[in-house]
Specification:
Blueprint (H helix, E strand, L loop, with lengths): L4 H9 L12 H14 L2 H6 L8 E8 L2 E9 L1 H5 L10 E9 L9 E5 L8 H15 L2 E5 L20 H24 L5 E6 L1 H11 L6 E5 L6 H5 L9 H10 L1 H6 L19 H8 L45 H21 L14 E5 L13 H4 L4 E5 L3 H7 L1 H18 L12 H5 L36
Parallel strand pairs: 4-5, 4-6, 6-7, 8-9
Antiparallel strand pairs: 1-2, 2-3, 3-5
Helix pairs in contact: 2-6, 5-15, 6-7, 9-12
Length: 478
């Protein structure tokens, strides 16, 4: 599959490097590995969060035809596993983009996750949230990622995460933070909900959607089923200091032995042998032919933290036996193969969608991908539609950068269509509608396919008051 030259050229202009300080703390990495096995289970993840989790509203302002409402709360990750997040990232910040007056009985809300380099709120507000509100009456909730914006550690340069495990901390933080904020929104009569993000934000949105215990729409754009290919094959792999990671990996038996107990190194079900995109695979089908827990948090008594011991696996990359004429790899090349193999395994462990529960209704998922994406390779990687049957995949014939620049309108329409799919099947509260012809249902707008929420007194904006007093942790960017 050909890839975009623009993607390759654009990445060559970006000088920032990822993971300059290596893999990260060994102890924290193991804690995070065990936590992953908990949050990937919807019921266990939901049980970790108190029902009355405190959410603070810090400020409100009217800007043109919308209200901007800034809020904050302590990340559940900071309470469940203290010390994993850096102090600057422990407070989660969000911004609502709401209409001045609701004109519908329901309050559709799209939750936007940030892509790489998307700091604060302004970019998502300008490109996605405001047009959605003005053109379709869909409100937005923009969440600030850990390690970005006001949550960026002082030792971090721009978007360059210092450690490999910082990326996993970001994902775990967003998964857990999505639970209390969505519960809070439901109690204040918002809904239905759609999760959305572009590139890394699309993958974070997918992970957050897997832990919701009721039907939600999902629109991940320019992402796929795992982040492993992004950092081992895509153009982003050139931004990693592999020499440093090689040295750390080969010099410390911890990575080969201790992590062996926690990471599933068996790629069965995560990859396929033939080089084929998910779409091409469909075309081919039409042709005849127990480990000790090191976590310092407690699960609810009704749940067990014993995840079972995985089979020991050798992290050395498995290579086919070379011909006698082939040149024997040098020691440096062998180390690089092992490092790459380990990077793929640990990325899959944390990010592969098959390691998480499926969303409650995968028919509410619309995936938008770029055919020539050089950032997010899809060859050999099992497709989203194979992991989540019933989802829809839309293709744009361009690369990653070009799609981001040219197809924001297409991304927004995918969100609108996802809400239409939701409203064709469910009422606002998530109960199932009687079956009606799909063509009829999708011909109507989300606002025409809703049932009034009996708790909503009127169309006026209903901004919940602050809890006790305004938090001191308001967002610096409005």
């Amino acid at each position: 599959m050909s890839v975009s030259r623009l993607d390759q050229f654009y990445r060559s202009l970006v000088l920032s490097k990822f993971f300059p300080k290596g893999w990260g703390s060994k102890e924290k990495l193991i804690k995070l590995l065990e936590l992953r096995k908990v949050v990937s289970n919807r019921a266990k993840c939901q049980a970790l969060i108190d029902d009355d989790y405190q959410i603070n509203i810090n400020s409100m302002q009217e800007v043109g035809s919308c209200h901007l409402v800034n809020g904050s709360f302590t990340s559940p990750l900071a309470k469940i596993a203290p010390g994993l997040l850096p102090p600057q990232a422990e407070t989660a910040h969000f911004q609502f983009v709401l209409p001045n007056n609701w004109t519908s009985p329901d309050r559709p809300l799209c939750i936007h996750m940030a892509g790489t380099g998307d700091h604060y709120f302004w970019r998502r507000r300008l490109l996605i949230a405001k047009p959605l509100l003005k053109q379709h009456g869909i409100a937005s909730l923009i969440i600030e990622n850990p390690f970005y914006g006001s949550r960026r550690p002082s030792q971090q340069s721009r978007s360059s995460l210092n450690h490999v495990y910082d990326l996993f901390l970001m994902g775990a933080g967003l998964i857990l933070e999505s639970v209390p904020i969505i519960r809070w929104c439901k109690t204040h009569n918002y809904g239905p909900f759609c999760f959305h993000g572009i590139s890394m934000g699309g993958h974070m949105a997918s992970l957050a959607a897997t832990v919701q215990n009721f039907p939600v729409a999902l629109v991940p754009c320019l992402s796929w089923t795992t982040a492993s290919g992004v950092f081992t094959e895509g153009v982003m792999s050139d931004s990693i200091n592999w020499e440093s990671l090689d040295k750390l990996f080969s010099s410390d038996e911890f990575f080969k032995k201790e992590l062996n107990k926690f990471i599933n190194n068996d790629p069965h079900g995560l990859y396929r042998n033939e080089v084929n995109s998910s779409r091409h695979l469909k075309e081919e089908r039409t042709k005849p032919k127990e480990s000790k827990s090191l976590l310092n948090f407690k699960l609810p008594s009704k749940l067990s933290s014993n995840q079972g011991k995985l089979n020991d696996v050798n992290f050395t990359a498995t290579e086919s036996k070379p011909d006698a004429s082939e040149k024997k790899p040098t020691d440096k090349e062998s180390k690089r193969r092992e490092t790459l193999h380990f990077m793929r395994c640990i990325m899959d462990e944390f990010t592969h969608l098959k390691n998480y529960d499926m969303p409650v209704d995968t028919e509410l998922v619309i995936v938008v991908v770029a055919d020539k994406d050089a950032y997010v390779p899809r060859q050999k990687i099992v497709g989203v539609d194979e992991i989540w049957p019933g989802c829809e995949i839309r293709y744009v014939n361009t690369g990653h950068v070009s799609a981001y620049i040219r197809y924001q309108g297409l991304f927004r329409m995918a969100i609108v269509d996802a809400f239409k799919k939701y409203n064709a099947k469910y009422y606002t509260d998530g109960t199932r509608r009687p079956k009606i012809p799909v063509t009829h249902a999708l011909s109507q707008t989300p606002l025409e396919q809703t049932r009034p929420n009996k708790n909503v007194k009127g169309p006026e904006i209903d901004i919940p008051p602050s809890v006790d007093e305004l938090s001191k942790h308001s967002s610096p960017n409005t």
